[in-house]
Automatic annotation (TrEMBL):
<dbReference type="GO" id="GO:0005737">
    <property type="term" value="C:cytoplasm"/>
</dbReference>
<dbReference type="Pfam" id="PF07992">
    <property type="entry name" value="Pyr_redox_2"/>
</dbReference>
<protein>
    <submittedName>
        <fullName>Reductase C-terminal</fullName>
    </submittedName>
</protein>
<dbReference type="GO" id="GO:0016651">
    <property type="term" value="F:oxidoreductase activity, acting on NAD(P)H"/>
</dbReference>
<dbReference type="Pfam" id="PF14759">
    <property type="entry name" value="Reductase_C"/>
</dbReference>
<keyword id="KW-0560">Oxidoreductase</keyword>
<dbReference type="InterPro" id="IPR023753">
    <property type="entry name" value="FAD/NAD-binding_dom"/>
</dbReference>
<dbReference type="InterPro" id="IPR016156">
    <property type="entry name" value="FAD/NAD-linked_Rdtase_dimer_sf"/>
</dbReference>
<keyword id="KW-0274">FAD</keyword>
<dbReference type="InterPro" id="IPR028202">
    <property type="entry name" value="Reductase_C"/>
</dbReference>
<feature type="compositionally biased region" description="Low complexity">
    <location>
        <begin position="148"/>
        <end position="164"/>
    </location>
</feature>
<feature type="compositionally biased region" description="Low complexity">
    <location>
        <begin position="21"/>
        <end position="30"/>
    </location>
</feature>
<dbReference type="InterPro" id="IPR050446">
    <property type="entry name" value="FAD-oxidoreductase/Apoptosis"/>
</dbReference>
<dbReference type="Pfam" id="PF13370">
    <property type="entry name" value="Fer4_13"/>
</dbReference>
<feature type="compositionally biased region" description="Pro residues">
    <location>
        <begin position="1"/>
        <end position="20"/>
    </location>
</feature>
<keyword id="KW-0285">Flavoprotein</keyword>
<feature type="domain" description="FAD/NAD(P)-binding">
    <location>
        <begin position="174"/>
        <end position="477"/>
    </location>
</feature>
Length: 582
C-alpha cells in the first residue's frame, strides 16, 4: 500500500507565545430524564446477590506472553471520507496520532508532524480515534458520517449492529453511564456506533461536558489553553441525555437503579461505571484554607491559576513527586515563581519510572531552578491568613504563598458502598470489563471503565490493577461498551498496552506499558547523559524475561518501534563463548 501524500506540515515542538482562539462548538443543554413510570424503584430485597456467576473460560487464564497479537483497539469502520485539520498552536508533537493512524499522520526525522488533510473512508475510523486520543485536542475531524448518532447521522442508516450481542441488546432499553468524563463519553459513543438505539443517559457530577484533564497542570494553568479548547472534539454530536451537575449517592444492583441526590432513582437495563478518581489530600493539611489546593477538576486548576497570577504570589510549595507535582513545578517556574518540591520518597517519579530514570527527571527540575526536597515530609502547617508557614521533618521552615497537593488520586467509589460490588481500590472487574461482586461473581449488566476500574490485563499477568491515563480511558470505554452488548460469555478480554506522556521543562517524556512492573532496565537508544534516550523495562517470568515497558525522552519517533513488543519475551541470550553451528 502506498503512503498517502502529506500536504499538511507542522513545525517541530512549537512554543506559542499566547493562547490560541477558542474554536470549540457550543455545548448542548443538559436534558432531564425522569425515571420511567413503568419501572418504579422496587424495595431492596435481601442480599446476596445481583446475578449468577458466569463460569470462567479456559481462555481467561494467563497465557504465554508471545501468544498476544500487537495491541490495536477494535474500531467501527466508517463509510465516508473525512477531512483533518491540526491546530499548530496546540500540537506538541507527542506522536500519539501516528500511533493511532500511521496512514494519516507521520513524524518526520526532523521531528515535525506531517498529515493527510483528506482521509479516505478506509482510514476515517483511525483518524477519528487519533482525535479522541490527542492530549492537546489539537486535531479536528470534519465531515463524514457521525458514528455517535448525532445530527450528522440523521437520514442515514445506523451503524452495523454487534451481531453476537443481539440477544443481550434486545433487552437493553436504557443504558446509563455513571460518569460524564472521557471513559463515559467513549463508552456512550461506542454504544451508538454498535447500533444501540435505546435510551442513553450520561450522569456527571461536574457541570461541564467531558474535557481533557492532562493539560490542566500545564497549558490551562499557564493560560495557553482556554476551557473551551479542552473539550473533546471527536464526539461532540452524541445522541444522549446529559444529566450534569448531578450527584450519585447509591446503587441498587438488585433493583437495577441508580440513586441520585434528593432520593431520586434512575432505573437502567445496562450500566457503565466510569466515575473516575478524586485528588488525594493530606489529613494534616488545613482543609478549609484557600491556600492549600489540589488540581483534579477545571475549577481546581482555575483557583490555582488565580493564586499563581496574583500580584502577591511569589513562592509556591508543591507536595508530591509524581507527574502532576512535577508538571505543576514546571508551570510555576515558567511563570517566574520560586518553587519548592517536597517529596516523601526519592528520587522523583521513582514509583512510576524507577530510580535511574527518575534521577534524570530530578536533574531536569533542579537545572530549571526548582528546589527539590527528597525524602522529606511536612510536620506542621500554620495558616497566617496572608501566608503559609510549613515546618519540615528536618527542621527547615518554609514561608510560601500557597501549597498545591500533587499526591495522586483515589477512586470515586464511596457512593457504591452497600451495593454488593467489590470496590477496594476501585471497581473490580474481570478480564472483559464486567464488574465482579463481593462474592466473586460476574454481574452481566454492569461494566466499568477508566480510572475507577481495576481489572487483570492478561498481557502482563492475572493481578487486577487500575491504569490512569487518557488513552486508556478511551480504549477501555470502547471495550466496556462492546462487552456490555455481547454479554460476559461472548465478550473478549481487554489486553491493551497502556500509554502515557509528560513534559518537563521542554523535555517530552513518553511511555508504553507499565514501567513500575520492571525489575531490569536497559538503555536501547541514546544515553542517560544526553537526556535523550529510550529505556526498556523487563522482568523475569516463568516464560523468560518479559518486556513490560519502554520510556523515551525526546525520542517520540524511536518509541514507535517498541509498542508492539510490550508483553512479549526477550530473545534468549546465547551463553558467552559458545559458537553456533554452521
Amino acid at each position: 500500500m502506498t503512503q498517502p501524500p502529506f500536504p499538511g506540515r507542522i513545525p517541530a515542538a512549537p512554543r506559542p507565545p499566547g493562547p490560541s482562539p477558542a474554536t470549540a462548538a457550543a455545548r448542548p443543554v443538559p436534558v432531564a430524564v425522569p425515571p420511567r413510570p413503568a419501572r418504579p424503584p422496587a424495595p431492596r430485597p435481601p442480599r446476596p446477590g445481583p446475578a449468577p456467576a458466569v463460569p470462567a473460560r479456559p481462555a481467561e487464564r494467563p497465557l504465554h506472553t508471545d501468544a498476544f497479537a500487537p495491541a490495536r483497539p477494535v474500531l467501527v469502520p466508517e463509510a465516508e471520507p473525512v477531512r483533518i485539520s491540526v491546530d499548530n498552536n496546540r500540537c506538541h508533537i507527542y506522536g500519539i496520532c501516528q500511533q493511532e493512524a500511521p496512514e494519516v499522520f507521520r513524524i518526520a526525522e526532523s521531528g515535525s508532524l506531517h498529515y493527510t488533510r483528506s482521509v479516505p473512508a478506509a482510514y476515517a475510523a483511525k483518524a477519528r480515534q487519533a482525535v479522541r486520543c490527542c492530549p492537546m485536542q489539537a486535531i479536528a475531524v470534519h465531515g463524514g458520517q457521525s458514528p455517535s448518532g448525532g445530527p450528522a447521522a440523521i437520514g442515514r442508516p445506523p451503524a452495523r449492529p454487534l451481531r453476537s450481542g443481539s440477544a443481550a441488546r434486545s433487552s437493553l432499553r436504557r443504558i446509563v453511564v455513571a460518569g460524564a468524563g472521557l471513559a463515559g463519553l467513549s463508552a456512550a459513543t461506542r454504544l451508538r456506533e454498535r447500533g444501540f438505539d435505546g435510551e442513553l443517559v450520561l450522569v456527571g457530577e461536574e457541570p461541564h461536558r467531558p474535557y481533557s484533564r492532562p493539560p490542566l497542570s500545564k497549558q490551562y494553568l499557564s493560560g495557553r489553553l482556554s476551557q473551551a479548547q479542552l473539550l473533546f472534539r471527536a464526539d461532540e454530536a452524541l445522541d444522549a441525555h446529559w444529566l450534569l451537575d448531578t450527584q450519585l449517592t447509591g446503587l441498587d444492583a438488585v433493583a437495577s437503579a441508580l440513586e441520585l441526590r434528593g432520593g431520586e432513582f434512575l432505573p437502567y437495563d445496562g450500566l457503565v461505571l466510569a466515575t473516575g478518581v478524586d485528588a488525594k489530600r493530606l489529613p494534616e493539611a488545613p482543609v478549609f484554607s484557600d491556600r492549600v489546593r489540589t488540581v483534579r477538576t477545571i475549577e481546581d486548576a482555575a483557583a490555582v491559576r488565580r493564586a499563581m497570577h496574583s500580584a502577591r504570589a511569589r513562592h509556591v510549595v508543591i507536595v508530591g513527586g509524581g507527574f502532576v507535582g512535577c508538571e505543576l513545578a514546571c508551570t510555576a517556574r515558567e511563570n517566574g515563581m520560586d518553587v519548592t518540591l517536597v517529596v516523601h520518597s526519592a528520587p522523583l517519579l521513582r514509583r512510576v519510572l524507577g530510580a535511574r530514570v527518575g534521577a534524570v527527571v530530578g536533574a531536569l527540575q533542579r537545572r530549571a531552578g526548582v528546589d527539590v526536597r527528597l525524602s522529606t515530609e511536612i510536620t506542621e502547617w500554620q495558616d497566617h491568613g496572608d501566608a503559609l508557614r510549613l515546618r519540615l521533618d528536618d527542621g527547615t521552615v518554609l514561608d510560601c504563598d500557597f501549597v498545591v497537593l500533587g499526591l495522586g488520586s483515589s477512586p470515586r467509589t464511596e457512593w457504591l458502598r452497600g451495593s454488593g460490588l467489590e470496590i477496594s481500590d476501585g471497581v473490580l472487574c474481570g478480564p472483559t470489563c464486567h464488574v465482579v461482586d463481593q462474592w466473586g461473581r460476574t454481574v452481566p449488566q454492569i461494566v466499568a471503565a477508566g480510572d475507577v476500574a481495576r481489572w487483570p490485563n492478561p498481557r502482563f499477568d492475572a493481578e487486577p490493577r487500575r491504569v490512569e491515563h487518557l488513552i486508556h480511558a478511551v480504549e477501555m470505554g470502547q471495550h466496556a461498551a462492546d462487552s456490555l452488548l455481547r454479554g460476559p460469555a461472548r465478550a473478549a478480554r481487554f489486553t491493551p498496552v497502556p500509554r502515557f506522556w509528560s513534559e518537563q521543562h521542554g523535555t517530552r517524556i513518553q511511555a508504553v506499558g507499565i514501567p513500575a512492573l520492571g525489575t531490569d532496565t536497559e538503555i536501547v537508544e541514546g544515553s542517560l547523559r544526553s537526556e535523550r534516550f529510550v529505556v526498556r523495562y523487563s522482568r523475569q517470568t516463568a516464560y523468560g524475561a518479559q518486556i513490560v515497558a519502554a520510556v523515551a525522552f525526546d525520542m517520540p519517533l524511536e518509541l514507535l518501534d517498541y509498542r508492539d513488543q510490550i508483553g512479549r519475551t526477550l530473545p534468549h541470550a546465547r551463553p558467552a563463548g559458545r559458537r553456533g553451528h554452521r
